[in-house]
Amino acid sequence: MAHPNLLKDKYIIDIKKQRWLWLSISALLLLPCIACMTYSILTYESHTPIKVGIDFTGGTILKYDIKEGITTDKMADIRTQLHEAGIENPIIQNISTDLKTEEGGVNHLLSITTPFIDENSDKADVVTKILNDNLPKAELVTTNSVGPALGKELLLNSMATLALAFIGIVLYLNLRFQLDYAVIAILALAHDTLFVIGVFSIMSLLFNVQIDSLFITAILTVIGFSVHDTIVVFDRVRENNRFLAKKCTISEIINASVNQTITRSINTSFTTLLTLLALYLFGGATIKEFTLAMILGILIGTYSSIFFASVILDMWEERKAGIK
Question: Domains (ranges, CATH) in the chain?
Fold first, then answer.
C-alpha cells in the first residue's frame, strides 16, 4: 500500500503516465540537431559539428572602428576587393558596440577574419588600405592572430578536456550511486550537450556563427550544472526508496521524488537565467555566444533532470523488476 505522506492525489507532473510525451519532446529537440551536426561533419573542411573560429583553425582577426554602420552591398564589395588582392575567403562582420561616441552617435566595429597573417607579411596593410578606400574613417583597433599549429593543438586539447570531464563524472557518480544510475546520468548529460552543440551547429549553417575557446568553457559549465541538477533528483529517489521500498512501487517513488524537487530545480535555474539574460543583453558582442550557450544549457539541463533522466530511470527500474 502506498505511503500516504509520500504520495498525493495530484502532482505537478506524472512521470510514468506522460513518459512518452517527454521522450517525444526530447526526440523532437535532438533529431534536427543530430542531423545538422552530421551534415556539418561531412561537409566542413575541419570535420567538426560546428564552424570553429581562429582559436581552433588558426587565422587573423582585424577589427576596425568605422564610426557608422555599413550596408550589405558595401560589405560584398569589400569582400570582392580583398579576394582580388589575395586575401582568401575573408569573413566580414559588422558589430555594433552600443557605445556612445563623443559626437553622440554609436560606434560600429567591422571585423575581418582572414587566413593567418605572419608578422612579416604586408597583407594586414593591404586589408587596411582597401578598407580605407571604401570607408575613409575606418581605424584599425585590434589585431588577433593564432597560428595554424597552435589552433589544431587547442582543438585537440579541448576535446581531451571534454572527454576527461565525462570520465570524471562517470567515476564520481559510480561511487556516489550505483552504476546504472551513473549511466542514466551520463545519458542525460549527453542529451544536454548534444542539444547545445546542435543548436550552434544549426546557427553555424544559417548565420555563419563560429565558436571559440569560450564555447568549450560554456559546455564544461553546462555539464557541471546538468549533473548537479540530476544528482538532486537521484538523491531524493535514493532517500525515499530507502524507507519506502516495501510500501510503494518504484514508479511511485520516482514520481514523488521528482515532484518534491521540481520547485527547487526551477527556482535555481530561473535565478541563474536572470543573470545570464542580463549578460546576453548588456554584456557586449564578445560574450554573446558564450552566454547563449549557457542559457541553452541551463534550460535543457533543467528539462532533462526532471523529464528525461527520471523517465529513463523509471523505465530501467521497471525492467529490472520485471514490470510490463
Answer: 19-52+150-321 (1.20.1640.10), 59-146 (3.30.70.2040)
